[in-house]
Each structure stands twice: as C-alpha cells, then as structure tokens.
Amino acid sequence: MLRFIIRRVVVIIPMVLIVISLTWVLVRLAPGNFYTGEKKLSTGIEANLREKYGLDKPWYVQYGKVLKNIVRLDFGNSLKYEGQSVNQILWRGLPVSAALGLSAYLIALLVGITTGSLSALKPNSWIDYSSMTLAMLGISIPNFVLGPLLVLLFSLTLFWFPPALWDGFPSRSMVLPALTLSAIYIAYIARLTRSGMLEIMRSDYIRTARAKGLTEGQVVTRHALRGGLLPVVSFSGPALAFLITGTVVVEKVFALPGLGNYFINACFNRDEPLIIGIVAFIAITVLVFNLLVDVAYGFIDPRIRYS
Amino acid sequence: MTDEYSATNELIKGTSLWRDAWRRLLRNKLAVFGMVVVIIIALASIVGPAVISKATGSAYDSIPRDSSLIKSFAPFRGPAGEFSWAHPMGTDNAGRDILARVLSGGQISLMVALIATLVSLVIGVSYGAIAGYLGGRIDDLMMRIVDVLYSLPYVILVIVLLALLPAKTPSGQLAQLFFALGAVSWLTMARIVRGQIISLKNQEFVLAARATGVSTPKIIFRHLVPNALGPVIVYATLTIPTVMLSEAFLSFLGLGVRPPRVSWGSLAAEGAQNLAVYPWQLIFPGVTMALMLFSLNFLGDGLRDALDPQTRKN
Questions:
Q1: B159:A270 CB<8 A
Q2: What is the DSSP annotation of A59-95?
Q3: Looking at the partner chain, which of A15, A124, A142 has a beta carbon nearest the beta carbon of B289?
Q4: Is the pLDDT of residue A269 over 50?
Q5: Does A9 lie at the interface with B, CB-CB under 8 angstroms?
Q6: Which residue of A139, B45, B149, B201 has the fewest C-beta atoms within 10 A of its own C-beta?
C-alpha cells in the first residue's frame, strides 16, 4: 500500500513538470508579448521592460526560473494585475471555484445515486425510462445553454435568484451556478449507478443476503450500494478534471470571480506567471485527487490489490 | 473451387452479422428516433443555407440593406410586429435570419465534430492496435502513458493553445480545432481497440497470416483492425457528440470558430449576451444543438446495444 502510494507520487512529479513545460513552450511560441499593444513602444522602453521581466536572458535561464518557482510553490507576480502575486490571485479565486465545484458535485452525488438506484431497482418501469431520458437530456444540454436558460426562467422571469452575483458560500446567489454545473454529473452518476447496481443485484451475495431474510431495504443499503457504487467512485477522479472545465464556463456565464475566469483572462492577456501558476495548481490538484480516489477504491473494495 | 466457395460463405456470414445488428437497431425506438433527427438536422444544415438563399434571393447571413431592418425581430414577427413567415426563429441584432444562421452553424459544428472524430479515430486505433499487438513491455509503457494522460485536464492545455496561438485565417482556425480536439479525444478509443486486438491476436487467422510471412504492420491494419470494427464504430458515434460539445464550449469562450463563420457554440455565446431582451437568439441555437446531441447519444447507445449484445444493458 505504502509502496503503491510512493510510486504514484513519484509519477506525479514528472507529469506536473511536463504539463508546465508544455504550457511554457506554448506561451513562448506565441508571437508578440504581454506588453505588445496597439501602441508601438519605443525601443528603449521595450528594452527596459524586457530587462525588468528577465526576457533578455537566454531561454534556459528563464525556464530554470519557472522550474524554481514551481518547486518553491511561488509563481511570482502577475503581469496584468500589477502588484499582485499569482499566489494572492489563486487564493482569491480558489474559494469561489471550490465552493461551486463541491456543491455541484454533492448535489450530483445525492440526486444521481438516488435516481440511479431507483431505476436499477425497477428496471424498465416508467421511473427507469423517465429518469434515464432525463439523464440523457442532462448529458446533451451544454452548460452554457442551460445556465442562461435557468437565468432567464428563475432570475429574469420569476425573480427568485440573482442572475450574476457572488456573495460567498452559502448564499442564494450560488443556487443557479451550482445547479447548472451539476446537471451533467447528475446524469453521468445516475447512469453509472444504474448499470453498477443492475449488475450487483444479480450477483450471488445479494441472493445470499435475501436468503438469510434481510428486508429489501437492508439488502440495498447494506450490501448492494457498496458494490454498485464502485463505478461512481472511480468516476470521481476524472470528474474533477471535467468539473474544472465546467467551472470555466459556468463562472463566465454567471460572471463569478473564480479561478476559471482568471484563467481565461490570463490566457487572453498573455499573463505568463498567472497562466503557469493556474495550470500548475490545476495539474497538481487533479493528479493528487486521482491518487486519493485510487487509494479510497481499495478501502471500499478489498478485492483490489495494489501491485 | 474450394477457395471460391469458402469466400462466398464468409461474405454471407459477414453481411448477416451487420444485418442482424441493423435489425436490432431498428427495433430500438429511441435509437431510430435519434437516427431520424440526426439525418434531418444534418440534411437541413447541408442544403438549408443554399435553399434559403435561392428562395429569398439573398445570401443566407447577409445583413439587410434597409437599415430599418437591422434589429432583432422576434420569431414569426415582421418589421411592424405583425405575424410573418419570414423569420421563423427571429433575427439577430444585425437583422440576420437566425434559422439560416443556425443551419450554417450546423454545417461547421458537424464538420468539426466529424473531422476531429476522424483524427481521434486514426490516432486511437493505430495506438491501441500497436500496443495490443506488440504486447509486453511496449504495451505496458504505451498504456501507462494513456493512463497518465487520462488524468490530465487537457482541455486546459487546449485553451492555452487556442488562446495564445490563434491561427491567422478562419480556415486555419478550423484546422487547428480539428487537430486540437482530435488529439485530446483518442484515449478511450485506444483502450477499446487494444482490448479487442489482444483478444483477437492469438486466433488462427493471425497465426496463418504470420506463417505466410505477412509483415507486422500489415497484420495489424489489414487483418486485426477490420475485425475490431464494431466497437470502433460504436465508440466513434459516441465521440461525435462529445467533440461537438467541446467545439461549442471553445467557441462559447471565443476560442473556437471565428466570424464570419459561425457554429452552434458561437451563436449561443452571442445569444447569451442578449438574453434578457432577445431570448430567442440563445434558445434556438441552444435547443437545436441540445436536440442534435441528445439524438446522437441515443443513436450511439442504440448502436452499442445492436453491435455488441454482450454488453447490453437490461
């Protein structure tokens, strides 16, 4: 177990380096520079700027600086938001994105597992058909369409929730963004739960549980759910990566000051330290989270051996 | 004589497999519904803009000459607010017919989805087939790389690529989209193909091919891959909607298709900005796209059930 974790951690380090290097190369390949605008700078000013930001040094010195920054987890100052360090911006955007992503995922787990299990317990019933059609709808409606439609209905017509506002967690302003983000995960989790549960309900140990006289409710909650939810657990790893892309859109639709919004703006502004900082942060989070999911998997299903 | 006989025999067996699948597909009502909707939307997108420009005598997305018409009409409403058949989906802020724009956006969305899926197909099938056939350490290494790539938020890298290295021309941008989207969606395909190849490679026809001195690349691509076609088709059908969604997502962020070309994603982005006043600008492109994705997903699910009865859901 410990060896498994150590080996996985050792893999994470080169991966983060590869991602960062790729990002850095992309930023450097791009024509122009963050200071190039509509007005042409005089050569003196440009030379000063290049010197100030270390752009006059050879590429390996600059690349080395990027690597050093990552090791120290300090990404330097943003080029666009003057006087603010990348870390300050990360810490400002993270709570927004994390609150949004976590609440969306919790909603998805709750609703998805419930509907998925109900479908699996009564396969081919109207509950099954309607919830699976709804799930397909959830997968098919893009969140950038769903979000504005929810705003149109609940904010601009019924006036229940504010259309675009952030006043912390928890608050009414979070309801629509979290719902928008969760729709597709509700759908995925419901489908995964359904197929996982269907398979488990046919297995021998469920028949044993029934044979020894447990009520159907006990069979489901104590025995079937544990095995039937394994696909959901392993989906949680990739789900985080998808959640991050989802938050980029949802934050844009609802104008929330989260990491996704900062990231898109940083890309358009060519704010190199901020781009690298956010990409590094995302890569590390996703990889560590995947490791945690794999470890948790072993606790839930003791049949799995780490080799 | 014997050769000919066995060849025809095999041919009949081959068609009956596909015919069987076709029959199973037709029995699945949702899949048939999906197939019909996909065909209708695709045909309308392909011929629609041309038909509209012929019928109205103007290019499908032209801005009207008369400046009093340059405003957003509601669906089925004429300039004075009276009922009119001219714009069944209304017009956008520049007075362009939204139906025509949705159809020509459909052309681009479909094209990006198909070509990017094809790119991912080529990469995924070759990668998976090579890993599966060669086996051993090479397979371990290749699949380890896939595992690792799986856990990466590669869309983030695509965003960086498209934001920082935008192509010079709109067509170049399209080509960039094909490759960027294709290059990040081949992973599952590689896994599926590898699994298929591993289960096939020890069969006798492979041994026969090897014994007659067929080269390894030829065994992989001429003998093994065609036999793994069923799952490949199924998964490719399911890749199309995800790629379409990614394209729309990128276009929504302003990174994908650029004017004068439009796609469903860029139309939805435009519509979302005018949501409060002109909701139809978002609703029609958004609903068309959702309907297309919905139908494609049902069709893909139906194909999976039809071609691969073992993994069939209850």
A1: no
A2: HHHHHHHHHHHHHHT---B-SSSTT-BHHHHHHHHHH
A3: A142
A4: yes
A5: no
A6: B149
Rounded to an integer, what is the distance from CA A198 to the centroid of its chain?
A: 28
Q: Hey, of B30, B160, B238, B255, which one would you mutate to test binding to chain A, going by the most A CBs within 10 A of its CB?
A: B160
Cis check for the bond before B259: say yes or no (omega within 30 of 0): no
Q: How many inter-chain contacts (A to B, CB under 8 Å) are there?
A: 123
pTM to 2 decimal places = 0.78
Q: Do A142 and B153 touch (CB under 8 A)?
A: no
- The stretch B56-70 carries a mean pLDDT of 63
Owner of token pair 């270390």 = A54
Q: What is the pLDDT of residues A234-251, one digit of tens each?
A: 787 777 767 877 788 888
Q: Work out the percent of chain A whose per-residue pLDDT is above 70.
A: 88
Write the pLDDT tens digit of every residue in B211-261. 888 888 888 777 777 777 777 887 888 888 888 888 888 888 878 777 777
Q: Is A29 on the interface with B (CB under 8 A)?
A: yes
- Across the interface, do B275 and A156 touch by the CB < 8 Å criterion? yes
Q: Which of B41, B181, B275, B312 should be substituted to probe chain A, the one whose Cβ sees the most A Cβ atoms within 10 Å? A: B275
Is B314's CB within 8 Å of A123's CB? yes
Greatest Cα pair distance in chain B: 80
Residues in chain B: 314
What value of ipTM does the predicted structure carry? 0.76
Q: Residue B42 and residue B51: Cα distance in Å, rounded?
A: 14
CB nearest B160 (choices: A11, A198, A267): A267
For tokens 């960062």, name the residue. A20
Show the DSSP H helices in chain B as ranges: 2-27, 29-56, 98-134, 136-150, 154-164, 170-184, 187-200, 204-211, 216-218, 229-252, 264-273, 280-307
Which residues, in sequence order, are CB contacts of A124 under 8 Å at separation 6+? Answer: B314
Most A-contacting residue of B30, B150, B164, B238 (CB-CB within 10 A), to test interface? B164
How far is the C-alpha of B91 from the C-alpha of A72, rounded, in Å? 54
Reply yes or no on whether the pLDDT at B94 is more than 80: no
| Local confidence band at B85 (pLDDT 50, 70, 90 cut-offs) | low
To which residue do tokens 């009119």 refer?
B84
In b/e form, how buried is each residue of A223-246, taking b as 16+ CB within 10 angstroms?
A: bbbebbbbbbbbbbbbbbbbbbbb
Q: Supply the DSSP string of B136-153, one letter for each residue.
A: HHHHHHHHHHHHHHHTS-
Q: Which residues of A touch B286 (CB under 8 A)?
A: 141-142, 145, 148-149
CB contacts of A123 in chain B (<8 Å) are: 314
The token pair at B186 is 């081949």
CB pair distance less than 8 Å for B164 and A29: yes
Task: Answer whether A244 sits within 8 Å of B153, measured CB to CB.
Answer: yes
Tell if the CB–CB gap between B265 and A142 is shorter than 8 Å.
yes
pLDDT at A98: 83
Please report the pLDDT score of residue B84 as a whole number: 66
Top-confidence residue, B296 or A123: B296
Ranked by mean pLDDT, the top range of A43-57, A153-167, B36-50 is B36-50
End-to-end CA distance of chain B: 45
CB atoms A282 and B163 under 8 Å: no
Structure confidence by residue, pLDDT tens digits, B188-202? 888 888 888 888 777
